């Protein structure tokens, strides 16, 4: 099938780009335009007409990318036209009338590029991350993955394991070959090195996932302390209802923010207090769970929150900032119990010291999590495959006898397979190729 879709953003724009890929892409361009067919990779101004009609849709630029030297590896074309909904709809409608043409599914162009070997799975994922990036640090991370440095590391581990696996396979299938009897010991030393390297990468505080998905900040505290006012201030809009009636917020309210280039997901939670209301009790339970899962907690209280002391110790940790609101009331008393937490005194009403709070948030996030130079894992999928790889390498370590070579080979094979699944490469023929190249078997 030949697929087509709007590749630029939806909505009214100065220019819209419609992408077409497949064996009938050339037919599509020929039916939409007249005259000479555009030269390869040359922007060509053409009148674009409705199929089987001389009715003009628009005048735009056609760029022709013959396969396999295209993004998808197939014949591909781009139509650059004015970005009105009517123009886009007219072109889509005309293409749909051509046999074997259909609207592309989400991500299908990149999926075809992966299937045709134009990109690996990591690069495909990084393209999606780049398109959806909202902050500078997300853009940089996506570009880094696209550059291939990360996939090179995974492929390096995989190639080393394939080399070791070829030795084990050779010992099993060709015992007459002159191979050292202690080969398993030598292989174990190398696999242990690889395992340690992978474990060091896994011990990364999930920075890559945090950058990609957004750092999680929970605003927690007793009822009527100013939590909803704070999330509204940070968002610069009315995200949550603010009321003097305690217990207004029952569910968790989220908003996505860009704080100095850091992607952040801020959650406003229900006020924590003793309550007999079942709905409010569920909201309080959600609030405590959100605080537990957050990367950073902003614990908001006011100096009159005497009932806060009962759960203060449970909420305060090295990932918490204590904020005492309503300092505009000129209450001079400073509760000694709070001083050890180095609180920030603010007034949401007068917007006092809020810049100090934001600076502290930025400092905490950067100090705790922003060490992105060596980040290799950006998705939970990568982490799970690496953990499985380590698990099989640990199993391999337990095989101590030559008679256990079959089990050892299976452990190495599965460890290699999980590394291959990260970049989307799993091919048993590579093992056979390594055996024949290195050991000249079958000479």
Please provide a written account of the structure.
The chain is α/β, with parallel strands linked by helices and 443 residues long. It folds into 3 domains: 2-115, Gyrase A, domain 2; 149-204 and 377-439, Up-down Bundle (Four Helix Bundle (Hemerythrin (Met), subunit A)); 213-352, 3-Layer(aba) Sandwich (Rossmann fold). The chain contains 16 helices and 12 strands. The protein has helices spanning 25-32, 85-96, 108-115, 121-132, 136-146, 149-173, 183-202, 207-213, 227-235, 278-293, 309-315, 336-339, 354-369, 380-397, 405-423, 429-439; strands at 2-6, 13-21, 44-49, 56-65, 76-83, 101-103, 215-220, 253-259, 262-268, 296-302, 320-325, 344-345. The strands form 2 sheets. It has a 6-stranded mixed sheet with strand order 3-4-5-2-1-6. It has a 6-stranded mixed sheet with strand order 8-9-7-10-11-12, sandwiched between helices. Residues 428-443 have low confidence and may be disordered.
Looking at CATH, which topology of the largest domain would you report? Rossmann fold
- CATH homologous superfamily caption of the largest domain: P-loop containing nucleotide triphosphate hydrolases
CATH architecture of the largest domain: 3-Layer(aba) Sandwich
Main pleated sheet = 6 strands, mixed
Average pLDDT reading: 81
Q: Helical proportion?
A: 40-55%
Please state roughly what percent of the residues sit in beta strands, choosing from under 5%, 5-15%, 15-25%, 25-35%, 35-45% or over 45%. Answer: 15-25%
| First-last Cα distance | 45 Å
Strand order of the largest sheet: 3-4-5-2-1-6
Q: Indicate how many domains the architecture comprises.
A: 3
CATH top-level class of the largest domain:
Alpha Beta
SSE string: EEHEEEHEHHHHHHEHEEHEHEHEHHHH
**Which structural category do the helix and sheet elements fall into?**
alpha/beta
How many alpha or pi helices? 16
Uncertain runs = 428-443
The value of Rg in angstroms is 30 Å
Quick one: overall form? flat
Question: How many DSSP-defined strands?
Answer: 12
């Amino acid at each position: 099938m030949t697929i087509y879709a709007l590749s630029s953003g939806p909505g009214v724009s100065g220019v819209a780009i419609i992408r077409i890929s497949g064996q009938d892409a050339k037919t599509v361009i020929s039916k939409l335009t007249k005259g000479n067919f555009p030269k390869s990779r040359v922007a060509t101004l053409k009148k674009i007409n409705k199929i089987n009609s001389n009715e003009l849709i628009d005048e735009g630029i056609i760029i022709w990318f013959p396969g396999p030297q295209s993004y998808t590896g197939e014949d591909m074309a781009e139509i650059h036209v004015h970005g009105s909904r009517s123009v886009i709809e007219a072109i889509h409608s005309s293409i749909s009338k051509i046999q074997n043409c259909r609207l592309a599914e989400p991500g299908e162009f990149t999926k075809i590029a992966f299937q045709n070997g134009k990109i690996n799975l990591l690069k495909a994922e990084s393209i999606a991350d780049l398109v959806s990036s909202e902050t500078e640090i997300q853009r940089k991370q996506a570009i880094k993955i696209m550059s291939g440095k990360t996939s090179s590391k995974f492929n390096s581990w995989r190639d080393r394991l394939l080399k070791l696996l070829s030795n084990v396979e050779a010992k099993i299938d060709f015992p007459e070959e002159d191979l050292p009897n202690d080969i398993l010991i030598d292989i174990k030393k190398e696999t242990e090195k690889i395992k340690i390297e992978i474990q060091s990468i896994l011990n990364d505080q999930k920075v890559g996932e945090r950058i990609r998905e957004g750092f999680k900040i929970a605003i927690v505290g007793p009822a009527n302390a100013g939590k909803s006012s704070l999330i509204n201030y940070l968002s610069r809009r009315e995200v949550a209802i603010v009321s003097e009636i305690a217990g207004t917020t029952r569910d968790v309210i989220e908003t996505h923010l860009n704080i100095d280039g850091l992607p952040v997901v801020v959650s406003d939670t229900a006020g924590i207090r003793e309550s007999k209301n079942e709905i409010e009790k569920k909201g309080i339970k959600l609030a405590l769970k959100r605080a537990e899962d957050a990367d950073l907690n902003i614990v908001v209280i006011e100096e009159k929150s005497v009932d806060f002391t009962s759960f203060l110790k449970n909420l305060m940790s090295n990932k918490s900032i204590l904020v005492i609101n309503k300092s505009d009331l000129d209450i001079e008393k400073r509760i000694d119990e709070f001083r050890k937490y180095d609180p920030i005194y603010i007034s949401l009403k007068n917007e006092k010291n809020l810049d100090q709070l934001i600076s502290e948030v930025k400092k905490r996030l950067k100090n705790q999590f922003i060490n992105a130079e060596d980040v290799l894992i950006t998705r939970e999928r990568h982490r799970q495959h690496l953990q499985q790889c380590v698990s099989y390498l640990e199993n391999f370590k337990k095989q101590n006898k030559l008679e256990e070579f079959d089990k050892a080979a299976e452990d190495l094979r599965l460890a290699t397979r999980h590394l291959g699944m990260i970049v989307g490469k799993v091919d048993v023929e590579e093992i056979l190729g390594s055996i024949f190249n290195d050991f000249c078997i079958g000479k």
